[in-house]
Amino acid sequence: MTYIELINEFWKQNGFKPFKPMDAKMYFYLLHQCNIRGWLNPFQLQTRNLELELEITRKMIEESKNRLKQRGLIDFTVGSRHKSPYYTIIGIEVTENPDNFNVSHGNTNGNTNGNTNGNTNGNTLYNKTKIYTNNNKNLLPRAREERELERLDGFLQEITDNRHQIWENSVCKKLGIDSVRDYLYSFREHAILNAAVERMVSINEVKSYFVNSFRYFTKDNPLSLLKSYEEKGEDESYVKFCHWIRTKCMNVAKDLIPVTEDEFKAVVKAYGSRDLFEAVKQINERPDITQKYFSLYRLVIKWVENGTK
After folding, report:
1. Which strands sit side by side in the sheet containing 86-89, from one edge to the other?
2. Collapsing DSSP states into helix, strand and coil, what is residue 117?
3. Are 66 and 78 in contact (CB under 8 A)?
4. Of these four, 50, 138, 285, 301, which has the most CB atoms within 10 Å of its CB?
5. Burial 246-271 (b: 16+ CB within 10 A, else e)
6. Contact criterion met (CB below 8 Å) for 2 and 124
7. What are phi and psi of 194, to 5 degrees?
8. Contact predicate 159/184, CB 8 Å
9. Which residues contact 100 (CB under 8 A, 6 or more apart)?
C-alpha cells in the first residue's frame, strides 16, 4: 500500500465504524513515525515519546493501540524496562532485521522530502508490498486481496445485470448451458482456490477464464454453497449465522452467494453482529433486491454504508 492508500483505508473503515478521536491521532502519529524512518517496519518507539507528543497517559496509549490492533491497522510487541515496544503498520512490507536497519531522518539518495529510495512524492512505499502477521510470514495484503475480490465481484455483478448479454448468449450456445449465472458461484470459488482472482483485471479476462476453465465448475446454487459453508464452518457464531439464513432468510439463501467465514468476521468486526443480522433480515424482505445482486457480502456493506431501509 502507498501512504495515501493507508490513509484511504483508514477513512473507509471509519465510514463503517467511526474511530475514537484518540485512535485516529495515534494511528496517524505512528504512520508519521514509520514514514520518517524510511518506512522501517516494524520500528521502535518509546512510550514516553507518545506521552509527550500526544499529551496522553500510558493507560490511554495502551487502550488506543489495542483498539487499533483489533481493527487490523497495527500490531505491536510489549516493551520492557530496557527495551521500547516495536510497532508494525499493517499493509506495508516488513523489514527483515529492524534492529540492524539504518534509520534515516534526513535527505538521502537525492530525495527531496526526507524519505528513502528516491521517492519524490512522499506517497509511494518502497519495494513490493507485503503484510505482517503474528507468525512473521509475509502474505498478500488483506486489503489488496479484498480489493481484488471486490473487483471480481463487480465484474460478476455486471454479468448478473445482463450487461454482457451477447457474450452470455454465445457462451451458453457454445457450452450447451441454459444460463451463465448458474455457474458464477462455482466460478468464483474456483478462482479463489486457484489464486486466479488477481489475474482477472478486466471483464474480458473474466470471460476468457470462465470459458477456458468451465469444465471445472459445478452448477452449484447459493443454497448448496451455504449448506457447505455451514458444514465446514469452524466458528460457532458463523455456523449459527449460516443456519439462520438457511432456515429464516430463504430469499437471501437462494439468490445471493453466501458470506464466507472470513467475510463474516470482517463484517462483525466493522459493524457488529446486530447490524449484520438486521441488514440481512431487511434484505431478505426485498426479493427485488436479492434477485438483482450477486454477493451478500457486498450487498450488506452497501446496505449498512448507505443506511438503506
Report:
1. 43-44, 86-89, 74-76
2. coil
3. no
4. 50
5. beebebbbbbbbbbbbebbebbbebb
6. yes
7. -100, 15
8. yes
9. none
Q: What does each of the 309 residues of the chain score in pLDDT, given as a tens digit?
A: 788 888 888 888 888 888 999 999 999 999 988 888 778 888 888 888 888 888 889 899 999 999 999 888 998 888 776 678 889 998 877 765 444 333 333 333 333 333 333 333 333 332 333 333 333 333 334 556 677 888 888 899 899 888 999 999 999 998 888 888 888 888 888 888 777 888 888 899 899 989 888 888 777 678 888 888 899 888 999 999 999 999 999 999 988 888 888 889 888 888 888 889 999 999 999 988 887 888 898 888 888 877 654
Q: What does pTM read for this prediction? A: 0.45
Q: What DSSP string describes 201-253?
A: -SHHHHHHHHHHTGGG-----HHHHHHHHHHH--SHHHHHHHHHHHHH-HHHH
Closest by CA to 187, choosing from 161, 218, 154, is 218
| Cell numbers at 92, concatenated | 506495508
All residues at 6 or more sequence positions from 152 whose CB lies less than 8 Å from its CB, including other chains: 188, 191, 197, 200, 206
Question: How far is 155 from 183, CA to CA, in rounded Å?
Answer: 14
Place of cell 477464464: 209
Report DSSP state, residue 113. Answer: S
- Helix, coil or strand: residue 65: helix
Least Cα distance to 211 among 172, 245, 238 occurs for 172
